[in-house]
User: Which sequence fits this backbone?
């Protein structure tokens, strides 16, 4: 696994961004998250060591823009060069998540056609309103590898009509002392929808405030992922 953040900075875009960990971390460091800047790591996929070998070794999954959004408008001038690097490394698999899926075709490279084999796109949704808006677009896009990311999940949602050709649904709660609660029933409902259509499912993290069987639990941030793993409900 490798991380590649060709730029940094982002803007809150919808309800799921309210307690964004990137904004919180930047605030503690006195950094303006709304300032979008090209990073020193921009050329990471094609960077080589002194012997001439790629620093990111073949066969890895590369997580792209996990501290921003790959479809951010301010990055339009830089994205084509990123696509060129992605195309130059067919031995790597690149994955990015976006809340701006409506911009995808305007941001895709000229030779995208029905998609690159080595790219997975994850469309992030947090409630039924955003699911219906974003996924109605997502399901029509020519992308070979599609994931749906329901994190933070803010309410019970129905994805049944959007799961065709989706490889994975990821679910997780919100992490913040003021976080909106995650109800385990919502998680299980999504799992059932995935099981019915043979779609992989992953419960990545509980919420800071987690409801199970009508009881509210307040969890430490360090325990959110481990507690989700203990549920053992991944498909």
Assistant:
């Amino acid at each position: 696994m490798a991380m590649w953040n060709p730029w940094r900075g982002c803007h809150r875009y919808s309800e799921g961004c309210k307690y964004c960990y990137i904004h919180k971390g930047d605030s503690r460091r006195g950094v303006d998250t709304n300032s979008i800047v090209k990073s020193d790591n921009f050329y990471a996929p094609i960077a080589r060591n002194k012997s001439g070998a790629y620093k990111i070794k073949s066969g890895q999954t590369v997580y792209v823009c996990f501290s921003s959004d790959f479809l951010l408008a301010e990055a339009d001038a830089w994205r084509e060069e990123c696509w060129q690097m992605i195309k130059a490394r067919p031995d790597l698999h690149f994955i990015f998540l976006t809340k701006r899926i409506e911009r995808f075709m305007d941001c895709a490279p000229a030779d995208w056609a029905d998609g690159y084999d080595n790219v997975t796109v994850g469309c992030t949704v947090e409630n039924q309103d955003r699911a219906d808006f974003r996924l109605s677009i997502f399901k029509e896009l020519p992308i070979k590898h599609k994931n749906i990311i329901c994190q933070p999940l803010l309410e019970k949602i129905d994805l049944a009509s959007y799961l065709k050709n989706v490889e994975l649904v990821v679910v997780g709660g919100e992490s913040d002392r003021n976080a909106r609660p995650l109800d385990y029933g919502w998680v299980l409902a999504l799992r059932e929808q995935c099981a019915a259509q043979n779609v992989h499912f992953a419960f990545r993290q509980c919420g800071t405030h987690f409801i199970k069987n009508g009881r509210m639990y307040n969890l430490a941030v360090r325990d959110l992922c481990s507690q989700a793993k203990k549920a053992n409900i991944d498909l």
Notes: The first strand starts at residue 2 and ends at 4.
